[in-house]
Amino acid sequence: MRKINLDDKFARFTERWSPKVVGEVNDCAVKLVKLEGEFVWHHHDTEDELFFVTKGRLTMKFREGEAVVGPGEFIIVPHGVEHLPVAEPGTEVMLIEPKDTLNTGNVRNERTVEHLQKI
């Protein structure tokens, strides 16, 4: 057993929109990701996603509205719900989702991360 210091882990990478695995809980991965700007509209057929904002501000857009998530807050996006993450510069997020969740869901493009790095 070991404890994880989020500030230390976030300091180990600079890439945006490229999740890093920092732990596992049952069949889920705990991932850290730095976000900035707009991502891509997508959904996940079978996976729910939890976005916990540790720094900055994340606007989660949905076809029928949006939710603004700040530090110390989280949002759960249910599977099948199309969403578009948009983040202020410097936003840092912890994700909890099934291990095999593809960051771009049903979309494959230049932002798709096929193989996650563990840090």
List the helices and strands and how they pair.
Blueprint: H1 6-10, E1 20-25, E2 28-38, E3 49-55, E4 58-62, E5 65-69, E6 73-77, E7 83-98, E8 117-118
Parallel strand pairs: 1-8
Antiparallel strand pairs: 1-2, 2-7, 3-6, 3-7, 4-5, 4-7
Question: Care to describe what's here?
Answer:
With 119 residues, the chain is mainly beta. It is built from one helix and eight strands. It has one helix at residues 6-10, and strands at residues 20-25, 28-38, 49-55, 58-62, 65-69, 73-77, 83-98, 117-118. Strands 1, 2, 3, 4, 5, 6, 7 and 8 form an eight-stranded mixed β-sheet that branches. The longest helix is centred in the N-terminal third of the chain and has 5 residues, at 6-10. The chain starts with 5 loop residues before the first helix and ends with a strand. The mean pLDDT is 94.
Search tags:
single chain; 119 residues; mainly beta; 8-stranded mixed beta sheet
- Spell the H/E element sequence: HEEEEEEEE
What fraction of the residues are assigned to beta strands by DSSP? over 45%
User: Looking at the structure, what is the overall shape?
Assistant: globular
Q: Could you say which structural class the secondary elements and strand pairing correspond to?
A: mainly beta
Largest beta-sheet details: 8 strands, mixed
The tally of strands reads 8
Distance between the termini: 16 Å
Residue stretches low in confidence (pLDDT < 50, at least 5 long) are none
Our count of helices gives 1
- Whole-number mean pLDDT: 94
- Residues in helix, %: under 10%
Radius of gyration from the CA trace? Answer: 13 Å
Q: What's the assembly state of these chains?
A: single chain
